[in-house]
Amino acid sequence: MQKKEKYLFFTLLGIAFFLRFYNISQIPFTNDELSALNRLSFPTFSTMINEAVYTDGHPAGVQVFLWFYTKLFGFNQLIIKLPFLLMGFLSLPFYFFAAKNLSNTKTALFTLAFLATLQFPIFYSQTIRPYSSGQLFTAMALYFWSNYIFKKQQHKLWQISLFSLSLFLSFSNHYFNAFTVCLLFPAGFFLGFAKNKLLYCLPWIIAVLAYIPQFPIFFHQFKVGSPGWLPIPTTETLFNFFRYSFQFSTLIIFIIGALMLFNFQTNKKPLFIKKRSWVWLAIFLTPILTAYFYSIYRAPIFQDSIFIFGFFFLFLFLGDILLHPQIMSTIFISIIASITILNAYNLIFHREHYKQYYHHGYSQLVKDVNYFNQDKNITTHIFGFEPYFFKYYQKELSANHISKLHFHRDDFFADSAKNIENIIRNFHNFQEEQIIIANAFEIPDWIISTMENHYPFSIRSLHFGSEVYLFSKSQINPLNKNWIDTKKHSAPSVHLILNEDNVPQKLTEIIIQQPSNSSNIDHSKYLLTHKMNVQDLLKLLPKDEFFHAKLEASCTIAFKESNTIKIWPEKVKLICSVTDELNNNVYFMHQQFEQNSTNPSFNAGIILNFNHLKLPKKGSIAIFIENELEQKLSIPNKINIKLKQGNRNIYSLTNDF
Question: Which of 115, 411, 478, 577 stands the most exposed, by the fewest C-beta atoms within 10 Å?
């Protein structure tokens, strides 16, 4: 390498180290990581293999490592994170020298600039899952493979051993890690590098033989096929992954496009004759397309994380075709500097990586529950996942004084909370002065609406993978340790939200339509239709808030003929319909009216969560009452419709805001 290239190499490594290790003591565990730690609780190693590995969807490698590592060093968050952070970082020099062997130094630096600064490899270098270790094992396999096929020297025992070891570690780490490095095998033949076929095959044979004891795990998990919670991907899922790969940055895409156009115009030889470049692209795309079609025709396995192992090949391909071998040094340095600065800026300010990732999940959830409890031990209901997730951070954050905890699994709503009456009973008829709901994104939206009806004052903290609500019957005073304003008991309902500095602000609620005090008698089939254009609604909230907002509609009716009461539940409904610009129905929901226990009126409410659907930008939303039998109803002049602020952070780590 030239002197300038060495400076660039070490500068990029320094930036990569900083972006990965920044404030490392505050990097929390994801739910997936906590699940892995929870599966270490078995009394013996063999029990752990049978109960935690066989039932999982990954090879034994990482779980076995965690078993022995935590036995030696304990369960401190930072101590457990450290080896995975190091593995993610150490993959970079291996990737660099592999790219240098497979292409040239400029392509290697181009590749390193992206891998050092993009959110995708950074995030998956900060987790204790197979994706951090997999980056290192893939990079090692690539480096030793490139040495194996390109270095004009006799293959020595240590080279064969290290190459075999990197292949075996990849096989033991993750199935898509194994799939990616296995693609190198035919690539060597296709590119004509396997002159001595027996010697070329030897490391692969050694790695497969070493992996044989894990075959029973592999065949069992392959038979199961899917973890069971992933959706079937669409073409939009594919497109979103490629956008996420570049941090949703149109400017970076523009730079790559400009470089491609410039190279097409200045290069005398057509770019498509570089056979090796298309091999790199094929290795990048093959796992993605395999996962896509397998998910459609066999079982859903498509998720961004499994493509981290082949991510390197995208930039090896781009560097190969975009960078002219004789490109001027100043222009090349400008390109690398632009890529690095733009990616780092997007990571920190546009993607808000450290704000979103470092304040998410159960780490943030326990902090919020502790913050809302203050000096008062408020009853707290936690929904979804294992109690271990909460208790780990309760211990880690010294929040053991929180004792009135109730954990509810996913089947809670199916078994014991199917309707409002059941919810009221499960929450002790809402007799408590205050109550905390944690992990609230795991519960139906109507539960929150019901809580707000019984607790007119609330304050919420909304983050990526964490939603915590404090509901109160008395006016909330953030300055009071008990969150109660003893001077105000009859104030109108107020719902607050904590900003990033834990300062309460009023939740944005925009009234689209209010019911009047008067009512009229009507027996039409369709009543009180209110139609809203999506484009008009978009003007009411900032874009990043709008697509996470909730549209709430509610209405109260009464029947004027008593003999119709017996059939009303099935024949009168509150309807919400979303249509596109051609008036085709793209979403439809309805809710039956239920009788109020204290008076003869009937109520119905609908909540349209924009997080859960893609609104057509030129479409419309209609809210109305369907009176199928045209019964005589006493109804208000208008349906109550509100647009309420939602959780903009809920999917922020892997999706655009």
Answer: 411
